[in-house]
Design goal:
By secondary structure, this protein is of the alpha/beta class. The strands form two sheets. Strands 1-2-3-5-7-8 form a six-stranded mixed sheet. A hairpin with a 2-residue loop joins strand 7 and strand 8. Helix 1 runs antiparallel to helix 2, helix 3 runs antiparallel to helix 4 and helix 5 runs parallel beside helix 6. The longest helix has about 130 residues. The radius of gyration is 58 Å and the shape is rod-shaped. The N and C termini lie far apart (about 135 Å). About 15% of the residues are buried.
Amino acid sequence: MYGEVMIPAPEIRNRLLRAFSEPQADLLAEVLIESHAELVTRADFHELTSVVKDLATAQERTAIRVEQLAAAEERTAVKVEQLAAAEERTAVKVEQLAAAEERTAVKVEELAEAQGRTEGRLEELADAQRRTEGKVEELAEAQRRTEGKVAELAGAQRRTEGAVEELAEVQAGMLGSQQEMQRAIADLAKQVGGLSNAVGANLEDFACDIVPEILEKHWRLTVVSAGPEEVTASDGVHREFDVVVRGTIEGRPVVVLCEIKATVSPTEVAKFLRVVGKVREAHPDEDIRPLFFGYKAARAARDLIVQTGAAMIFTRGVMIPAA
């Protein structure tokens, strides 16, 4: 068996190239030739060839496995890209949620501030209510004092009448004392007039204080001024009003013309409303409103005030239409 002729080296190489790469085929051919030089038998060669075929088969399986691993790696890369995209979308969503949370926090803060302003406004209204109640109490007290003054005035009137009668009797008996009687009557008239003027002046001053506060409460009027004032009417006459309150309601200018009387009668209501009508004719673009202020008013006067849409403030309450 040792003398058999070996297959030529090129043939061996060509056969090896069927299963191996060129460097591998060259290396195996070289090994085979060297092995034959050491008297390798055909059986050994066949055994070696079988080993080479096994190696080739293993190499093919390895190549297939590498391809499978490459495909799995490619699928893994795609999955990673998908996960990265999902992560990016999640990050965007988280950012949107964070922005929404920030906007919500700002809104809650704004609501808290609005609530604080509302509570402050309620406290201001409560203070205004307390001040109004105090003014009403003062008005009631002033009413009581005025009633006392009126009683004094009535007593003075009765005394005056008695004095006049006495003076008439004296005049009948003493013609020379006529001038003295006239002076006495004049002095008495001054005293009565002074008392009446004092009552009226006190009532006007009191109206200047309390009317703006009550209108602020009922009409939410922002007062600019309050006091006696002359206003031009349509007949060109400058009408003098006891109190004129000027201000705004929700930014709109408003003028309130006030008539101050201790006791308001229907005749005075009708007369004052005619005057207000003439002022409105002279100022058609202005919001002019009539208001009566006093200690009391006859039922007929109150009915007329309500029917004409005017307002009234007196000791027993207020009659004020909606703004």
